[in-house]
Amino acid sequence: MKREETVKNRHIFADKRWIVPLVIAGSIVVSSFVKTADYSILCSLAKTRSMAIDKYSATPIQLQAIIHYATSQIIPQQNFQEISVTFDVLKKRSPCNFLIFGLGYDSLMWTALNPNGNTIFLEEDQKWVQSVLKDAPSLHAHAVKYRTQLKEADDLLTHYLSEPSCYPSKAYLRGNDKCRLALTGFPDEYYDTEWDLIMIDAPRGWYPEAPGRMAAIFSAAVMARNRKGSGVTRVFLHDVNRRVEKVFAEEFLCRKYLVQSVGRLWHFEIPPASNMSSLDSHRFC
Q: Membrane spanning segments where (predicted)?
């Protein structure tokens, strides 16, 4: 969803606008202290209990997020049901490496829900990055540039089918200038980290000259397939009600790996290529 739409339509939720932020704050509290409560029941020694409380107490970023959302009147980009999909995964996988395309009103929440993990944000609007970091300097965000435009979406699909460096058996990202869907020129951290969770809620994709999410979707698929560690890569794609997001998800993230659909959010579990039963050298799905 566009940030401009969020602000423009905020008055519609005037009577309910505090509900979602308060629920988010409550979720952060629960995720911070539920383990402490369970563990303390089993502890009989005061010293052991103190160590458990210290281990699972809220981190500074969580405390900041609780205060922020408890007093906020801004509705996050995703609704509560959509947020809960990723939250349920984070409860099991955190701390983890969490890559998020987009920097928004919910960024502090995502960082807080992955305490002691590595959560980074990629945002195409340099001024917006500066604005957000001014209020939340603890967030880990990078301003990035995309090579694509939304109006090129159909042409990019044709290009990928004819460009060998885009083929799933040969695709790579860093320095892959021949494949127009590969995200190049990004921070080294983006390439050097093996991401456990990837959320795609940016870049902008609602007008022809916008970057669109084509390259983000393609690159998420490449990173998931190239995973060397154990387990799958969880990919969360927002705004699947839009044609380009849906078409590119079905081409690169694959329907067979879609495990959950809630509102405008699709959740995929993508195994590494080494664990795939059948491989097509030219198509991802």
A: 18-34
